[in-house]
Design brief:
Layout lengths: L1 H7 L9 H11 L5 E6 L3 E2 L2 E2 L3 E10 L5 E4 L14 E6 H4 L3 E2 L21 E2 L2 H7 L5 E11 L3 E9 L6 E7 L6 H19 L6 E7 L3 H9 L7 E7 L8 E4 L7 H13 L4 E3 L8 H4 L8 E6 L20 H20 L2 E4 L29 H11 L1 E5 H8 L3 H13 L3 E3 L1
Helix pairs in contact: 5-9, 7-9, 10-12
The chain binds zinc ion.
Length: about 425
């Protein structure tokens, strides 16, 4: 993960362009991702794929010819999707096109102008104070172009499981050199996919790397039918900060994926921050929309909007470490493991009680089933047989009798093996 972070960090990603393709190609060295393209100009629902943006160079020189701002030193120096410009301009006119943060004087802000033709530079407030003077003239240069025959790139990987029903894992690739938002999400998703590829899975997994918003909308447009196979999912974003874990619920707060995300987090750190569902945020906005209504959760570590370096050059590899991403990866793995265990069974001997000894189900050892549980194996067998009406899932049973899902799953599978339960 550290290698991938370091390789991908310098790449200038955006909504479109070679930086995104290069990012996806690097991921392909770890997982068998398919890279796909959607042409510029194509209408996707209420939106349209923008032209492909390429930037080769950009700088500002002072009247002595010294470069005081240089895109080659940080790709955050140029407002993303800036149009080309080359002119000598008075400070008072240039100032409107300069973006800085007085409250974070060492940070270059991240700015975009995707859907409005403009140009601009971003710089630290310190540089603004040190290098610019009233009544001076500056030479500004942005060598960029928009290709109407270009395309928007995305990556997709389908990992087939025992079932055709799918779980969606989605992350976004449109941010340039910004580590937590959202290179950390790209790295976590890659390694989560690698883990899923290494084992047998119950569900199938649809893993996508798309530019945020427009890329997601385009993906949904291209795959509208396939999305019906998706049961639920997650949007992986801002997972590598040094602060607390966070958990944003899906739109249906009673959906079991929310309960299981809380259980997963409690395994690692009980002091996580809980966020209710909100219409603002990341790509859950698209997945939750009326036409799709796919429940997606997000487990974060320093969630977007919430940390001071958000959308600035200080969101870098000093702030984000592979070790932090690994912690969040462990929570996601736990969540997936639990989600795969939440099944619905039906008691095949519904009329009257099951004669346990006849099915070799009467536990030979008494006492608690697991050291920390107050319930014995016999308790679990009886409760599972009682509740398994073909409609009640294991999460519901676990809430009713205060048992661990893992224990219930273990016992239910045993009952299934004895042909007393069937899976629905
Ligand atoms: Zn962002």
């Amino acid at each position: 993960m550290k290698n991938l972070l370091e390789k991908l960090f310098p790449i200038n990603r955006s909504l479109t362009g070679d930086g995104n393709r290069e990012t996806l190609r690097q991921i392909q060295e770890i997982i068998p991702l398919e890279i796909k393209e959607i042409p510029s100009g194509k209408e996707v629902y209420d939106w349209k794929i923008p032209p492909e943006w390429t930037i080769r160079d950009a700088w500002i020189k002072n009247s002595s010819g010294e470069k005081i701002i240089d895109f080659k030193k940080s790709n955050l120096h140029v407002v993303q999707y800036s149009e080309a410009v080359h002119q000598t301009i008075k400070f008072e006119n240039l100032k409107k096109n300069l973006h800085f943060l007085e409250n974070l004087p060492n940070a270059i802000p991240y700015r975009t102008t995707y859907y409005q033709k403009k140009w601009g530079f971003c710089l630290t407030f310190n540089d603004f104070q040190n290098f610019f003077e009233e009544n001076e003239k500056y030479e500004v240069f942005i060598d960029s172009d928009f290709n109407e025959n270009g395309s928007l790139s995305y990556g997709e990987l389908l990992i087939s499981g025992e079932k055709k029903e799918e779980i969606l894992i989605s992350t976004y690739i449109c941010h340039p050199s910004l580590a937590n938002d959202n290179l950390s999400g790209i790295v976590l998703t890659t390694f989560l996919a690698k883990w899923l590829l290494s084992k047998k899975n119950y569900y199938s997994y649809r893993i996508i790397f798309v530019p945020e918003t427009i890329g997601t909308i385009a993906y949904l447009h291209e795959n509208q039918k396939k999305m019906q196979k998706i049961n639920f999912g997650c949007v992986v974003t801002t997972v590598g900060g040094q602060g607390k874990f966070g958990f944003k619920k899906s739109f249906d707060e009673n959906h079991f994926i929310n309960f299981l995300a809380e259980k997963s987090l409690e395994n690692f750190d009980k002091k996580y921050i809980s966020y209710p569902f909100d219409i603002f945020g990341s790509d859950e906005r698209q997945y939750s929309s009326v036409g799709f209504r796919i429940n997606t959760i997000s487990i974060t570590k320093d969630k977007y909007y919430e940390y001071p370096f958000y959308h600035t050059s200080l969101d870098n590899l000093d702030f984000v470490k592979a070790e932090n991403i690994e912690k969040t990866l462990d929570v996601y793995k736990k969540w997936i493991s639990l989600v795969e265990m939440n099944r619905i069974y039906k008691n095949k001997i519904a009329f009257g009680e099951v004669m346990l000894s006849k099915h070799d189900l009467y536990p030979k050892n008494g006492g608690a089933f697991l050291p920390e549980s107050h319930l014995t194996e016999l308790d679990l067998i009886q409760w599972i047989l009682f509740y398994s009406d073909g409609k009640t899932d294991l999460v519901e049973i676990s809430k009713k009798i205060d048992a661990k899902l893992e224990d219930l799953f273990f016992v239910a599978e045993k009952l299934k093996g004895k042909n007393v339960l069937m899976e629905i």
